[in-house]
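re: ur question from the group chat, yeah i did fold both. here u go
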Amino acid sequence: MKFSPNGNMLAYTESLPSGGSSDAMLYKFDTQIGTTELITNLPIDSLEGEYQYGLSFSPNSKLLYIGSVLNRINSGNKIEVYQYNISSPNIKQSKQTVFSKPLVQNGNQVVFGSIQNAPNGKIYIAKAATGGSSAD
């Protein structure tokens, strides 16, 4: 769960165990009274065995980034990062894949962790490698 840097939006996603699925949710946040109002859900692809973990807003609060793992049977497993334009009239249709790599790299399975904004204005994504020493 993350608040946008300007404090006006709240985004939420979760990774559910074995076969569970959950869409990411985007809310308007009222900073005066602390209430939320659902703007939209951002659906995962449950047919591709997708699960999401980690999200963050751009420093200017106009874009939302979500890290995802896709367990594709026919086209190979991938890790991806999606970008949504949250000022778009149709936020779901604004989805763009801004990063995509095979899930297994150099013999290691790579998965995304937390996505964080840094003081230098860049967004960093934690990654974990399993089945080997380190990931690229």
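okk and heres the other one u asked abt
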Amino acid sequence: YGFIELDVQWLVAMLFKQGKVSFTLNSQNISLVDTAGDELVRYLTKREYLEKLLIEMREHPTDKQMKSVREVMKDLFTMPSVNEEDDALIKSFKTRANNMLSKINELLTEYRLENRYPGKRVLENGKKMLAEAVEISAPMEFFRFVDSHKDDLLDFAEDSAPVFAFFAGEQKAIVVRAWKYIDIFNHSKTYVVDAEMIALVAQIHAVVAKDAPYSEIHKLPALLDQYASLHVTLIEKEVVPVQADMDADLAQVLEILHSKGLEIPFEQKIRTGYAELKEKLEHSNEVAAVKNMRYESDALKQRYIAEMEQYEKNHAATAQSGAPDEKAKPIVPTKP
């Protein structure tokens, strides 16, 4: 037709602008949305791109595929209406998907501190799908992917909403408290025979152990307060005999101390040791730990008694080696 090279370049550019052909450079899809006009001109006119730029007839997504993408964006990204065409729709989807991926990655770090938080599997599955969609560069492949995963993506939109709300609101703190109480109970459950406490822990665990406990977390504060009240009463009851044993151990050690006359090197140390043990007892929140204080007190008593005995032995040996025998004294000659 007598077209010169510039005419051909213009026609190809117009076909690309009209969406009738697609460009691929180094296996990467070239989009009007992501590529500046100057770059497109360079791809079409510079010889360095002559063999690298692949031009193909463009396949367009079906109405069903376009509708699937719009529905997913509306539910997953809470967008009221989406009217963009092919390339703009893809860009809009990927921008919001990347934002959501950043949010998911941030939340997944929470499970390193407490892996019993709910929703981890939901976030991981959603992350996998969104990451795959974002990595797709070919437009038709993108539309096919979203269309074929539409139901899964819509399920993720529904399932992830309460997970995001869990970490953003007060539910997380309530669940943290619940697991703390459960752990405290489990550490001492051998010693706990109170039927009401056992029943309360079972109710609390039944909620927090669910895959999706969000609608029932509101029940926990009242249950946790009930448990805390019973637990405090139990601890106070358990502390009394242990404190009596500690006082008896201290009295026994001090009696031995006074009988040996070792107040100066030992009394302050002994009183400080038992004061620290008493403070530890007062701040303990586990029945098992309180009961074990009885053994710590006895161990401390035995240690102090052994230290005093060793002290006496060391001083006796020092005194003996430092007092030479009178018969063994050397005769020192005197001047006449």
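fwiw on the second one: The longest helix spans residues 220-260. Residues 325-336 have pLDDT under 50 and may be disordered. idk if thats what u expected
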